[in-house]
Amino acid sequence: METLPELLDAVADDRFLPPDGTVTVLPQLCQRDAGVMAFTAHTLVLTDEDPAWVRATLAAVDCDPLAAPMHPRFLTALMDRTGRAAETVDALWVGTPLPGPPALALRETADTGHPRVVRARRRRDPVRVRVADGGLLVMGRGVGGRLEVALEVEGGGAGTGRGLALAARQLADGPVWAQVSPGNARSTRAFLAAGYRPVGAELLLSARDGSTGCSGSCS
Questions:
Q1: What interhelical angle do 160-171 and 185-193 show, nearest 10?
Q2: Beta strands, E only, the chain
Q3: Which of the chain's ends, N or C, has fewer CB atoms near its CB within 10 Å?
Q4: Which residues face 109 on adjacent strands?
Q5: pTM for the full model?
Q6: Whose CA is closest to 70, among 56, 53, 88?
């Protein structure tokens, strides 16, 4: 079986997992990273729980089997079983690296107090923060060691969000991933305009004890 980083690299390269309705249960690469990643007719469940329990719980969900891994009943059962919390199901986007320096004037900062940075430090390690006029760009290694980006527009002019998302591609040395709430139309449009592609959806589960670090394969 391929590892999670290998599977993510394949998706980023438009080599999608077999659309055969399979649910693949993978052990967590580290204590931090657990959750569900849904791609076209193929889902990854990242958990150290018994795979037999996962499959039995999915079979008990009264819905289309393809929808079961993202059904609220299964996700709630998984959170109860693991004692973990979650926020929202995000759309998953990916962009390829681009040559050249960012058009936006960015400066790196050690700021740790911004809510976007605080959230990023719970899910990614290490995290680098850059600021521009009217915007904030946060990048770090997240689940499976993938490079993830988050951005915040705070009074910037038209196109600031797109510029930040594009800058992330120019600063990256490989695929860069974005998790966007489906209801956040402005963010969705920014990443779309910056050349990112939708590839799936995911719900990541956080440890309730506040554990945030991830070492070894996740770093």
A1: 50
A2: 22-26, 34-39, 42-46, 84-85, 90-95, 107-109, 127-132, 135-141, 147-153, 176-180, 197-207
A3: N
A4: 129
A5: 0.91
A6: 88
pLDDT in tens, the chain (219 residues): 689 999 999 999 999 999 999 999 999 999 999 999 999 999 999 999 999 999 999 999 999 999 999 999 999 999 999 999 999 999 999 999 999 999 999 999 987 788 889 989 989 989 999 999 889 999 999 999 999 999 999 876 679 999 999 999 999 999 999 999 999 999 999 999 999 999 999 999 998 876 555 754 443
Is the Cβ–Cβ distance between 147 and 177 less than 8 Å?
A: yes
Residue 200, Cβ neighbours under 10 Å: how many? Answer: 19
Spatial CA neighbour of 142 closest among 126, 155, 128: 126
